[in-house]
Amino acid sequence: MSHKIIVTVMGLYYLITGLWPVVHLASFEKFTGPKQNHWLVKTVSLMLISSSVLFLNPMMMQHEPSQDIILLAKLNAISLFF
After folding, report:
1. pTM of the model
2. Contact 35, 41 (CB under 8 A)
3. Cα dihedral 7, 9, 12, 17 sign
4. How far is CA 27 from the centre of its chain?
5. pLDDT band at 38 (very low <50, low <70, confident <90, very high)
6. Residue 68 has pLDDT above 90, yes or no
7. Are residues 21 and 71 in contact, defined by beta-carbon separation less than 8 angstroms?
8. Which residues touch 55 (CB under 8 Å, ≥6 apart)?
9. Domain extents for the chain?
């Protein structure tokens, strides 16, 4: 599978999961459980949205993702895994 497809799927996933708590925090908490620090949820959400823009850019511009974007995708995946 090409890096472009992987980064695009990751970008879409990050965009959806990042937008959800920003758009409707109540349904997000109903699904994931109550959160004590709403500011932290929104901060992480905005960081995911920011990353998703970079991940979706190669698809929108019709080119392969740069090594920097691939590295960011790998580091984000590792960071959110733990």
Report:
1. 0.86
2. yes
3. negative
4. 18
5. very high
6. yes
7. no
8. 7, 8, 10, 11, 14, 65, 69, 72, 73
9. 3-81
Q: Which two tokens stand for residue 11?
A: 């970008």
**Residue 61: other Cβ atoms inside 10 A:** 9
**DSSP-assigned letters across all residues of the chain:** --HHHHHHHHHHHHHHHHHHHHH-HHHHHHHH---S-HHHHHHHHHHHHHHHHHHHHHHHHTSPPPHHHHHHHHHHHHHHH-
Q: Residue length, the chain? A: 82
Q: Which long-range contacts (CB under 8 A, 24 or more apart) does 40-45 make?
A: 44/18, 45/17, 45/18, 45/19, 45/20, 45/21
**What is the predicted pLDDT for the residue at 80?**
85
Distance CA 56, CA 75 (A): 16
